[in-house]
Amino acid sequence: xxxxxxxxxxxxxxxxxxxxxxxxxxxxxxxxxxxxxxxxxxxxxxxxxxxxxxxxxxxxxxxxxxxxxxxxxxxxxxxxxxxxxxxxxxxxxxxxxxxxxxxxxxxxxxxxxxxxxxxxxxxxxxxxxxxxxxxxxxxxxxxxxxxxxxxxxxxxxxxxxxxxxxxxxxxxxxxxxxxxxxxxxxxxxxxxxxxxxxxxxxxxxxxxxxxxxxxxxxxxxxxxxxxxxxxxxxxxxxx
Length: 239
Prior knowledge:
Blueprint: E1 6-10, E2 14-18, E3 24-29, E4 32-35, E5 40-43, H1 47-63, E6 71-75, E7 79-83, E8 86-87, E9 90-97, H2 100-106, E10 113-123, E11 132-133, H3 135-141, H4 146-168, E12 172-179, E13 181-183, E14 189-191, E15 200-204, H5 214-217, H6 223-238
Antiparallel strand pairs: 1-2, 2-3, 3-7, 4-5, 6-7, 8-13, 9-10, 9-12, 10-11, 12-15, 13-14
Helix pairs in contact: 1-6
């Protein structure tokens, strides 16, 4: 079992530790909940364990469709051994249905299906509230190269297609999601971070009930129960 050698980074939902191997990190999933750039905070017991298990299962299912990730192995109750990545400071968002602030910004009703998936980039900068950035702005800031953007969009759409199939099998509609990527020391771009109800909008296909962090954002209650139900369905179908 890999052991933590020292804390490298702590974010809102995870801690990243060095290990004895310089090409592997240990990621610990926290029980914390945040929204609106951490202006709203909360937590629930075993959230870290639930999110670790959801992410691990989804990474392994996506690998079967040709999507490489940083996942190496699960360890403990809420930790994951991963390949060391230099994270590209972009949140890559894919939208299949309009929801949340995007629907409000565009003046369109929530729940409107898009004719094709929309891929957007957001600059990972807490002090700027993670603003939307265009391809040209990314190149101007030197965040990524043009070839990187092509690869990020290609992988994001492949992930979207895979996740839609996975979630449809457990009666969940994938409304939108956010993923992050990083580069190995060899320059390979891999899916990193996590895929959980923290960063996906998931609506029950039969009831339209929200099964994600919007329950926390909108004070709908039943947050822990929703996350637990997503994991239960995934395990029932894929394990």
